[in-house]
Amino acid sequence: MPGAIPFQTTCCETCETPVTVNVPGPAGAAGAAGAAGAAGKNAYTSISSVVLAGWTLPAMGASSVAEVQDSSWATIGQMLIVSNSSAVFAYVKLIAKPAATQMTLQNEETVGGAYAANAAPGTIFTPGATVSPSGLQGQIGVNGVDGHPDLTYVTCANEVGNLPNSNPLIGNPTPGLVCWDAARAAGTQVYTIANLDVGTVVGTLPLVNGGTGTAAASANIAFNALSPANQNGDLIVRAAGVNARLPVGTANQVLTSIGGAPVWSNVLSALSHMAILRDIKASGTAGSTIVTGDFRTVVLNNETDIGGILTLAGNAFTFSAVGNYFILAIVPGYVSDGANPAPAITTFVTRLRNTSSGTTLLSGSNVRSPLSASVNGTVITSFLLGRFNVSNILDTHEVQVHPVCPTGTITLGRAATVGAEEVYSQVFIIKDLAV
What we know:
By secondary structure, the chain is mostly beta strands. The chain has 1 helix and 29 strands. Among the domains are: 45-133, Elongation Factor Tu (Ef-tu), domain 3, CATH 2.40.30; 150-196, no CATH class; 272-431, Jelly Rolls (Sandwich). Helices cover 2% and strands 36% of the residues.
């Protein structure tokens, strides 16, 4: 505490006059820490998803507004780089900041290629693409000086004196311009030659040394020396990584491809893989009578098979090979109702049936007789045309017809009775040879 200490300042003061002196007390405790400062701003941003597609790079020298997360950190006129990845980017200049989340960016690429690495105009920078400051582009470098004029031969520093002047490959070399190959074996004369004037080369360079093995001044003769073909009609093909000879095929063969390799194959003719099935009866004999109301088997009793593609037995047929086939079936019907005058309509439709699996493979045309006072003597024909598949050679197949005749009977054809055999239903089948 301050105390009064007697102190005489003048000769007129007495020793009892009080004097005040301030003495510092002990230091107090440390004060509390101040509040944390505001966070700094990132010196980059990214394309926002306000526009779902992102920002599209404009044409060279043009600008457009990009929606970004934050534009406050950037300065007008600043060079920036927009990047989707290390391989897709563009150098741009900040022209304006229309809003806190918008930047007007100008494509800095020019016709002269000022920023040749820029992505092409129209490139889309998707949301998340970064926008950050870019470095300044340096000045264009100075063009290099012209190279040294070419020499006829490579210059070497040693063994020049050992070169034979009579070597046909190099003619008469100038000392100091041709040297031995550094990797040569003792006693051999192999030369390393660069920038050779080919007009001075004479002699024959063997095949093993990269030549043609002939001195003939003809491109055809030189090619013949290298070609693997040696007979008329031979083809040069690529096999096992090298050029190879494919001999000409035999008469009427064609070139096909099997497993990526060219192969001569025999011509496949559809006419050699076909069958004709027919219903043939003696002259004057009508076609078989069939019961209406359900599908009935079409009678087929005659087979003409070229190529052995099927076997006919009991109106049904089986195939000798799996695969695809084409069929054309013509099934006639003749309606007879006697003297019945009542109007009636007869319908007639065919199908190809796999009787082993119980499935219908194809359906034919649905035809019907005209509505008249009588259908007596009406002839109707159903056609069956299409492509089908055989997956099991044991399966049996039939052509079937479904007639509906309310007042009469239907036969599978009316006899012409002209002295020749009567031909009714006919089925034409061809094997599909496509691979």
